[in-house]
Amino acid sequence: QVLDLSSSKRIYSWRGYGTALDGAFSSSGAMLATVDASDKPQLRDIQTGSELGTIEGMRGGRVRFHPNGALLGSFETIPSDGVEIHLADINSRRLVGKLKGHKSVQDFSFSPDGSHAASSGADGVRLWRITDRSQRAHLEGNGVRFNADGSKMAVHSRKGDVLLWDVAKGSATRLATGPTILAEFAGSKLVTVAFDESRPDGN
Fold first, then answer.
1. Helix, coil or strand: residue 61
2. What are the pLDDT digits (tens) for 74-131?
């Protein structure tokens, strides 16, 4: 269902749809991508609530919009030897690329400038260039975050320090943070949450 935040009222809802696993808005807020147990992302018009259809061949239990709103990424979080991240063109409703290499994907995001994407899984973090779908880097880590302009990304791991990766130069600076479960950019600063094995909850 879609709610109007100014009035807290429901504008419309959809019935006859399976259990929703994930959803994402386009950057303009005009379109919503949702996915249910069928693993087939569906597109909807936010203004009218009408269905815009699915994308042939696209699969995945999670969805992410590119910053320009014209590209949609989907991925499956269930480990497999054939895990693929799918990229689809919204206007043509066609699958335009597949990012391969992971055995599992926990998260996927486009850089704020739209030039790259990053994915993380049990087998590390990978950086992809969007124009040619090529892998730019494969780094040890459990999670990744881009800074505001997409020029840098922080790769964190429960087993070691945070790596600050320069996207243009393709080089990393190791930050003496120790094992980390979360790293987030806050303007020009990087906030990290440490992993402490001596505590029962690890934090």
1. coil
2. 998 776 667 899 999 999 999 999 999 888 899 999 999 999 999 998 889 999 999 9
How many Cβ atoms from other residues are within 10 Å of residue 18's Cβ?
11
Which residue ranges in the chain fall short of pLDDT 50? none
Residues in the chain: 203
Q: What pLDDT does residue 190 have?
A: 94
Report helix, strand or coil for 147: coil
- Burial of 197 per CB tally in 10 Å (0-12, 13-18, 19+): exposed
Which contacts qualify for 179-183: CB closer than 8 Å, 24 or more apart? Answer: 180/156, 181/142, 181/143, 181/156, 182/143, 182/156, 183/143, 183/145, 183/154, 183/155, 183/156
One-letter amino acid at 25 equals: F
